[in-house]
Amino acid sequence: MALMDKYVTKLDSLDFKKMYNNDFLLTWEKTKDELEAVFTVAEALKELRVNNISSKIFDSGLGISLFRDNSTRTRFSFASACNLLGLEVQDLDEGKSQIAHGETVRETANMISFMADVIGIRDDMYIGKGNTYMRDVSKYVQEGNAEGTLEQRPTLVSLQCDIDHPTQCMADALHIINEFGGIENLKGKKIAMSWAYSPSYGKPLSVPQGIIGLLTRFGMDVVLAHPEGYEVMNEVEEIAMKNAKESGGSFTKTNSMEEAFKDADIVYPKSWAPFIAMEKRTDLYAKGDKAGINSLEKELLAQNAEHKDWQCTEELMKTTKDGKALYLHCLPADISGLSCEVGEVDASVFDRYRKPLYREASYKPYAIASMIFLSKIKNPQGVLSMLEKNNKSRKIK
Amino acid sequence: MALMDKYVTKLDSLDFKKMYNNDFLLTWEKTKDELEAVFTVAEALKELRVNNISSKIFDSGLGISLFRDNSTRTRFSFASACNLLGLEVQDLDEGKSQIAHGETVRETANMISFMADVIGIRDDMYIGKGNTYMRDVSKYVQEGNAEGTLEQRPTLVSLQCDIDHPTQCMADALHIINEFGGIENLKGKKIAMSWAYSPSYGKPLSVPQGIIGLLTRFGMDVVLAHPEGYEVMNEVEEIAMKNAKESGGSFTKTNSMEEAFKDADIVYPKSWAPFIAMEKRTDLYAKGDKAGINSLEKELLAQNAEHKDWQCTEELMKTTKDGKALYLHCLPADISGLSCEVGEVDASVFDRYRKPLYREASYKPYAIASMIFLSKIKNPQGVLSMLEKNNKSRKIK
Amino acid sequence: MALMDKYVTKLDSLDFKKMYNNDFLLTWEKTKDELEAVFTVAEALKELRVNNISSKIFDSGLGISLFRDNSTRTRFSFASACNLLGLEVQDLDEGKSQIAHGETVRETANMISFMADVIGIRDDMYIGKGNTYMRDVSKYVQEGNAEGTLEQRPTLVSLQCDIDHPTQCMADALHIINEFGGIENLKGKKIAMSWAYSPSYGKPLSVPQGIIGLLTRFGMDVVLAHPEGYEVMNEVEEIAMKNAKESGGSFTKTNSMEEAFKDADIVYPKSWAPFIAMEKRTDLYAKGDKAGINSLEKELLAQNAEHKDWQCTEELMKTTKDGKALYLHCLPADISGLSCEVGEVDASVFDRYRKPLYREASYKPYAIASMIFLSKIKNPQGVLSMLEKNNKSRKIK
């Protein structure tokens, strides 16, 4: 039996036609079939690579990355995904470009895309901006393609916006699917997406929002826990609620970390900034109000410090299902006594889960590659089978 | 009939033997046949790409870029061109190198070129420096190749110097050739290369110089318009004059934007700094005279401000041929009311020409790829035909 | 006869099994057979390239570079080597990453390596740190591979640490092997590795240490010369002593440049900082003691200035073997009257040896590619022959 058979069979059972020539910005814009197609192709690409079979679908072409915030794993994941498919990464470093020199978003989007097959953007800092910017870029390159400026339509992949972090959350989902032995086994499992204390501040909301927006699709019991004042975007909570209803799971909120962790199968304790504070900060940045920003920072740190008890401790872990909930984190974590005095998680907890945490991260390149693949290839089943049949070595042995 | 036939036939009629293993620095160093060969191969490479046929001529090899000024479109155009032909781009970031640490140009040129097939340089800021630097690099890598340091001779492609901007102007030319339905139709067409007001200062002279040096080759009536004091390099004006005589066109100068635009088929309104100011600035930079530089900046801005009436307005556009002259710009433009209060062009004019402007820019990667191709391939006709026959997909469908 | 035959025959006579799936950090960790395997594969890869035969062994994959110090030639050599074998370079720019944000070395090492086949690190500034860091990274990625985070084990190649500069020294060795017509001809040749005056300070010790640690392997008479106070690491001197004994050569020390140069076949005059000063500086940096660093800098410059007579002059060159010793340098050199007033070498000496110096540098990409090749390919003889037989053009002609 061919390696690709099971993936092809799975894909045959799914409807994902609309992913062709499309973007990946928010998981809740995709049908469940489409999400499953992403998981399936990600696993298939991984299988090919493990078996040293080339999965290059491009002979030339560029993958453009634009990081408006520092990044290690997402940067290298995007580069890995592009390279795996045959695209060369070109980073748009805004500092080296003429963007400050009066270019519009429409103009820049087209000027960098003459031979771009994919554009990956990380823009997570300012509320109401990142996702909008990505949609603008997408609109303009589609227009450029229609007008004849661009011979191809570059696919937009969000590498984290102000609302969602789809490549992270899809990698997280791939991880738990593998840990629990199949997507069907997620039903009824309890996950605690919990705020946790950090001595730094202003961390994006996109991970907790992305998690409650995605994992409610699979019939899970998703609990969002945070201290009062650390609310996430209301719109995303409503999506989570709707998802849970449709999938036969649940979405609940609590101001108690203990309650969230109780009997949880999975815990995701992580710091984030209050949505309203991020909104305020976005306004202050827009006004260039440095004094305001500084005083907001102090406020936020003081607010965080009131919740030092929100830590993922050994004691708390013991209260989870059989004391063995799967611990998730998007990394890097603030580890008490290691990267900071007091942080999100006890060093011993983190250390016990280090291997699965690294594995969790290792799905990201495949998740990204899968998103690109499904946007570029009309008949993924046929192409996966063809790649296996061609059996070109990834590396000569 | 094969896709490549018409390009092969055209190339068969041209003499471009000397382009093999040669650089591309100034358009007026090339014969008219050679320029036509660049246009032809650019169109052929575009045709291959549109038809999803790989035009890789390199299996490995580096394309080195060195940008001494910020750049978006030229940077991505160079990267696109290299990638299209199979070269990987490596940027020589002088800040990260040891160049300050006592290396000579000869040494650096050789040390970065061990596996470099092409070196693209942008060095347009200082009068008398950029072009000279490129010639030095070219001389030294040829020497390195002859001496056995380098196994190949890296091709130098100017990505803009103090004198010419050949990749931009060749892309501009490709654009108007396409708009007017053939190079033969340019004869007798009037183009106004005109200074325009900008609230910034010190923009390079290489575009106006490049345009008058190139478009006078095709029998066009080229008018250079600018306020008194904004003269370009005298040597380039003489070249334009000589070109016009030889091609049966004309080259005239005026201090009136109105006169230049009157009945023009094409207009290219764009700001630039006076040649003598740029010379002065180059000296001041060499001396490290900060106070001098600052006071020159103020002078130049004040001088610009005296010519706010030099704008490409709707009124002025109406005076062009049938009120419909083709509007050109190398981008980004200073658009009145959009990127600045008062700038080079009315927003409504710019907006009406946005699509052709983007198309104009989209020729640049192909122009650069063509220059590299003609330097690297002894028998372009044979190789273009072979690429078509091989019919390797650029992207699996 | 096939091009690869002589290299295959040579490799057949060597035992280098342990290089497979291994790192290259210090030359003295390798057997003499293993060093000869590196030389042989480097020459074979060069032969293939000169004959326009592709030596790509990877269809996709990343080569990660991490430069903790500025670099031109090593950066481009690493990029060239990766490109030659089919790997795309991704630079880990620590400024753009989240490393400051609480990541451990273990975490970063894994997070950048999902699809990394090789990691090249330059970390030469701090005594006791660079080599240790590389070993940590290697340990962690091997662990990651064993744990299933990484599907492949990235090969570590030191691009210069605090102890050795193996890619430089192996390139230097390749150069002298070629100049003297074979590795067997190095026996009994005298090389002077000598300190030389420089107006800058704090240059790494890795080159002199690497040279005495490597060239004592080949039966050469290696003389280390420096003013009192400029001692190198004691451990490396002991290795040189042991090497010399084993290889039938000698290792001696002197505080006289004249003595070292006398009748030398090869001279390598180069500035470096005293080991104890580098240790002191490392401590000061660790403490963040800026005042201490500044005063140490002044001290070191003053100490250097006491030894301005340590220059490679024409007079000194006359005292070497037949007045014609081969002059080596890792470049860039401090050239008297050119890059500085008084420096390591007379301009006329440097100029006379410019061609061989550039050639010396040109071996570096092949040395690096060879190290990667031998780590990745179990049967180099078979693969080299196969590459020749496949005869894929590096560049279409």
Automatic annotation (TrEMBL), chains A, B, C:
Residues 212-371 form the Aspartate/ornithine carbamoyltransferase Asp/Orn-binding domain. It comes from the Bacteria. Belongs to the aspartate/ornithine carbamoyltransferase superfamily. Keywords: Transferase. One of its GO terms (molecular function) is amino acid binding. The lineage of its organism: Bacteria, Bacillati, Bacillota, Clostridia, Eubacteriales. One of its GO terms (biological process) is L-arginine biosynthetic process via ornithine. Pfam families: OTCace, OTCace_N. It comes from Clostridium tagluense. This is Knotted carbamoyltransferase YgeW. The keyword Transferase applies.
